[in-house]
Design brief:
The complex is a heterodimer of chains A (256) and B (291). Chain A has 256 residues and is α/β, with parallel strands linked by helices. Chain A is built from eleven helices and ten strands. Chain A has two domains: 162 residues, P-loop containing nucleotide triphosphate hydrolases (Rossmann fold, 3-Layer(aba) Sandwich), CATH 3.40.50.300; 66 residues, no CATH class. In chain A, a hairpin with a 2-residue loop joins β1 and β2. The longest helix of chain A is centred in the last third of the chain and has 17 residues. Chain B is mainly alpha-helical and 291 residues long. In chain B, α1 runs parallel beside α5 and α9 packs parallel to α11. Chain B is globular, with a radius of gyration of 19 Å. Classes of the chains: A alpha/beta (256), B mainly alpha (291). The complex binds adenosine-5'-triphosphate (ATP) and magnesium ion.
Chain lengths: 256, 291
């Protein structure tokens, strides 16, 4: 039994700019794998290349034993990969209900769609309450919930989440990550979670990768990553005691 | 009762402007560029219907000819997207606009070659005689145009609201990237939008040619429809229709009550006023994006 998702030496460009430079990554069924990295590291580009929004120049994306790199996005969606994009990207003039219907665009089983809509409403009661409201009038947090709920409407085998914590209050982040955890445990949704908020991401994930300017520089279990000094100082912002703080600047990151 | 007659006649003209404006907005929302050949689509649709119907040409029954003309224009819109517009992907909006202006010239040229430059009238059963409503005599053509436009608008509304394709069209127009993320085949959907705008143009053309004569330059009417779309907010379908109706109604009253010469300016004066005082149009759908 192979991996659910395997990425081998993936390279993607924006024109002449090489945004990801030979990325490899594996995700097992039922796992939550997080990809950490600073602004511009290439995290979103990686997700866009998996979901077919961008075509890679080199490398393979193997999903369920099948090479899918370079296929059209709607073909990839039909295989059960859903991309919840950075910045929500809801359909602003359509209602919550209509947004959810569009999440199920590639499906035809009416009864199943209706059941999943109810499931989304169970996980996100606020969406049920606002089901006839235009998505553009929801708050940022509610839009994020809608974006996740819309993704669930596909009944995805894997969900690619791009910075779901972006711009949300700590309390709301906690709430949404709690829901992601339940979705993973109860519905068995496999996830690739791109985050800058390393603390919440590593707390939720089973395994993690760290990206820097287009490359993978670390890969370990979430536990080990959370315990690693590099991650602590560069992503978790944990301060070392004051007398050593000068030397901190001199220390090289181990992955270089 | 002259007031009512002017009003109804204005509404009828305005319906045609509104339908052309609808085409402008459909394409604008889907592709973010303006199809300046929309007026010429209207003219071409009218000529196809006329060619199929009129006894000096094919002489088919109108009720067969009209749907055929609509289908032909739908196909033309779709093919245009597949063969030309889609290849312009990634080019500037200006390039697409200029392309459509050129396209308008080509369509006018073909219409001139096939059907000549003499004004012709569609032998339409929609336009015979008068109706008397509450003691007011109204042209049958005017009443039919208004009714057909209302029906078409209602069906379009239902289509956008309640069908999967209609919803996908709205989605692709509102957030193209997100539509891709949902697995909507955006390019195919855009092709259908071009087809739909062709069909709507054909209906506008058939209505227009039922009321008066058409010639290959009738598409110039598109300029008024463009003004209508801008007044409506250029992004709102109901706005486009209402913008068309407003311009349509202003015209006959301006012609009746303003000195000759000034009346033709009325729609454009209105356009300027709207642009100055409500730059996003009367029905703008501006939503700020939340972070
Ligand atoms: N549309 C684009 N055109 C050109 N370059 C781009 C484009 N989008 C991203 N890039 C570049 O590609 C690199 C990777 O960008 P990407 O959006 O994948 O980063 P990211 O890790 O998601 O960052 P963030 O955390 O800020 O979202 C960056 O250097 C960025 O400037
Ligand atoms: Mg990003």
């Amino acid at each position: 039994m192979g991996h659910l998702l395997e990425i081998r030496n993936l390279e993607s460009y924006y024109g002449p700019i090489m945004a990801i430079r030979g990325i490899s990554l594996t995700v097992e069924k039922g796992q939550i794998v997080t990809v950490l990295g600073a602004n511009g590291a290439g995290k979103s580009t990686l997700l866009k290349t998996i979901s077919g929004i961008m075509d890679p120049e080199k490398g393979q994306v193997i999903f369920d034993g099948e090479e899918i790199q370079g296929l059209e996005p709607h073909v990839i969606v039909k295989k059960g990969i859903v991309h919840v994009p950075e910045g929500r990207e809801v359909f602003p003039l359509l209602t919550v209900n209509e947004n959810l219907s569009l999440g199920a665009y590639t499906r035809n089983d009416k009864a199943g769609i209706a059941r999943d809509r109810e499931m989304v409403f169970e996980y996100f009661p606020i969406l049920a309450e606002r089901r006839n409201q235009e998505a553009g009038t929801l708050s940022g947090g509610q839009q994020q919930m809608l974006a996740i709920g819309r993704g669930l409407m596909l009944r995805p085998k894997i969900m690619l989440l791009d910075e779901p914590s972006l711009g949300l209050s700590p309390l709301l982040i906690q709430q949404i990550f709690g829901i992601l955890e339940r979705l993973n445990k109860d519905e068995g949704v496999t996830m690739v979670l791109v985050e800058q908020n390393a603390r919440v991401a590593l707390n939720l994930a089973d395994a993690g990768y760290v990206m820097e300017v287009g490359r993978m520089v670390m890969n370990d279990t979430a536990e080990n990553l959370a315990a690693s000094e590099d991650i602590q100082s560069f992503y978790l912002g944990i301060q070392e005691d004051s007398q050593r703080s000068e030397r901190r600047w001199k220390r090289r990151k181990t992955w270089r | 009762m002259e007031f009512l007659q002017l009003f109804v006649s204005g509404l009828a003209n305005g319906s045609v402007y509104g339908l052309i404006a609808l085409g402008f907005v459909l394409i604008y929302k889907a592709t973010e560029s303006v199809n300046f050949a929309q007026g010429d689509f209207m003219m071409f649709g009218a000529f196809i219907a006329l060619w199929l119907t009129n006894t000096e040409y094919m002489g088919l029954p109108f009720w067969i000819a009209a749907p055929m003309a609509m289908a032909a224009m739908g196909l033309l819109g779709y093919l245009l997207d597949v063969t030309i517009i889609r290849r312009m992907f990634g080019q500037s909006q200006t390039a697409v606009v200029i392309l459509t202006i050129a396209l308008g010239f080509v369509i006018r040229f073909f219409a001139g070659v096939f059907w000549g430059h003499e004004p012709q009238t569609l032998q339409s059963p929609l336009a015979v005689g008068d109706v008397t409503i509450g003691g007011v005599v109204l042209g049958m053509a005017d009443v039919t145009i208004i009714v057909v436009t209302a029906l078409l608008t209602f069906s379009l509304f239902q289509f956008f609201k309640h069908t999967k394709l209609g919803l996908a069209m709205q989605a692709a127009s509102q957030n193209q990237m997100a539509a891709y993320y949902m697995g909507i085949p955006v390019k195919r959907v855009q092709g259908f939008i071009w087809a739909l705008s062709g069909v709507v143009a054909a209906v506008a053309g058939i209505l227009f040619a039922s009321k008066g004569a058409i010639d290959p330059n009738a598409g110039m009417l598109g300029i008024k429809a463009f003004a209508a779309a801008v007044i409506g907010g250029f992004g709102s379908l109901p706005g486009a229709l209402v913008g068309g109706l407003i311009i349509g109604v202003i015209e006959p009253f301006a012609a009746r009550y303003l000195p000759a010469g000034y009346s033709q300016m009325a729609p454009y004066v209105l356009l300027l006023l709207v642009l100055v005082f409500r730059p996003h149009g009367l029905f703008s759908q501006v939503r700020t994006k939340k972070v």
